[in-house]
Amino acid sequence: MRFLHTFQLYDFLDTLVSLFTAFVLGTLIGAERQYRQRSAGLRTNVLVAVGAAAFVDIGNRLTGADGAVRIIAYVVSGIGFLGAGTIMKEGMNVRGLNTAATLWASAAVGACAGADLIAQSVALTVFVLAGNTLLRPLVNAIDRIPLNAATSEANYEIVVTTDVLHAAELREALDERLDAAKYPVRETEVAYRSDDLAEITATLVPLAADTAELDRVTAELAKLPGVRHATWNVSALE
């Protein structure tokens, strides 16, 4: 058997250290993800870390550092497909980006362990855990800051609810007022909500807008015949 000729106890113990390190560190990262009920939790992060460590260790055993480097390149690109499976888009919201990034980092931890860079894999795990835990209060604080419409580009929508008979007339009036205010319109849609109600939505080209001017435009539109309601909405760019 070839195994009896190629097996070396020292190399095997070294592989065990690499895999065990990846398992423990992947468990630490995965436990935090599992606690927060993310789609890629404890087992997924452990398997990613251990799998990356195993592939890199194989390359290292067969052809040395050059083989390990080639394997790492494939791990970096290949883990992207796994991470893509955790990303979901719901309307304007995108979920799972942080989970995908954590999987990518778990693969990096495993790759370091497989390359016998134990100290580096431990340090990377600390930074990953810090990013997912210690930065959370800062993220929450930033999210509470109101969007400054005057200095940041965003998606703006002007929404006018009117009766069906005045829909075409109101659409032209909306486009005219936005053109006069020098706000380029990306698209204008008319949705019929019932037999007698229509909703006209003008989506502006992403830009920085003057909220007072948008208030003035909607106030003018609200006074036109047939208009039931006029308002504007803003959302951050994706």
Can you walk through the features of this model?
- The chain is of the alpha+beta class.
- The chain has 2 domains: 2-143, no CATH class; 154-236, ACT domain (Alpha-Beta Plaits, 2-Layer Sandwich), CATH 3.30.70.260.
- The protein is 60% helix and 18% strand.
- The protein is built from 9 helices and 6 strands; from the N terminus they run ααααββαααβαββαβ.
- It has helices at residues 2-6, 9-35, 42-63, 65-84, 97-114, 118-133, 136-143, 167-180, 211-222; strands spanning 88-90, 93-95, 154-163, 185-192, 197-204, 227-236.
- A hairpin with a 4-residue loop joins strand 4 (185-192) and strand 5.
- Helix 2 (9-35) runs antiparallel to helix 5 (97-114), helix 3 (42-63) runs parallel beside helix 5 (97-114) and helix 5 (97-114) packs antiparallel against helix 6 (118-133).
- The longest helix is centred in the first third of the chain and has 27 residues, at 9-35.
- The chain is elongated.
- The termini are far apart.
Main features:
238 residues; Alpha-Beta Plaits; alpha+beta; 18% strand; 2 domains
Topology overview:
Blueprint: H1 2-6, H2 9-35, H3 42-63, H4 65-84, E1 88-90, E2 93-95, H5 97-114, H6 118-133, H7 136-143, E3 154-163, H8 167-180, E4 185-192, E5 197-204, H9 211-222, E6 227-236
Antiparallel strand pairs: 1-2, 3-5, 3-6, 4-5
Helix pairs in contact: 2-3, 2-5, 2-6, 3-4, 3-5, 4-5, 5-6
GO cellular component, one term: plasma membrane
Main location: membrane
Domain MgtC/SapB/SrpB/YhiD N-terminal: 19-139
Q: What is the overall silhouette? A: elongated
This entry's quaternary arrangement is: single chain
* Radius of gyration from CA coordinates: 28 Å
Overall SS class: alpha+beta
Q: How many individual domains?
A: 2
Listing every helix as H and every strand as E from the N terminus to the C terminus, the arrangement reads HHHHEEHHHEHEEHE
Overall mean pLDDT stands at: 83
Euclidean distance between termini CA atoms: 58 Å
Portion in beta strands: 15-25%
Count of individual helical segments: 9
Biggest beta sheet summary: 4 strands, antiparallel
Question: Reading side by side through the largest sheet, how are the strands ordered?
Answer: 4-5-3-6
> Helical proportion?
55-70%
- How many beta-strand segments? 6
Q: Which runs of at least 5 residues are low in confidence (pLDDT < 50)?
A: none
Domain MgtC/SapB/SrpB/YhiD N-terminal: 19-139
Main location: membrane
Transmembrane segments: 12-30, 42-59, 71-88
Keywords: Cell inner membrane, Cell membrane, Membrane, Transmembrane, Transmembrane helix
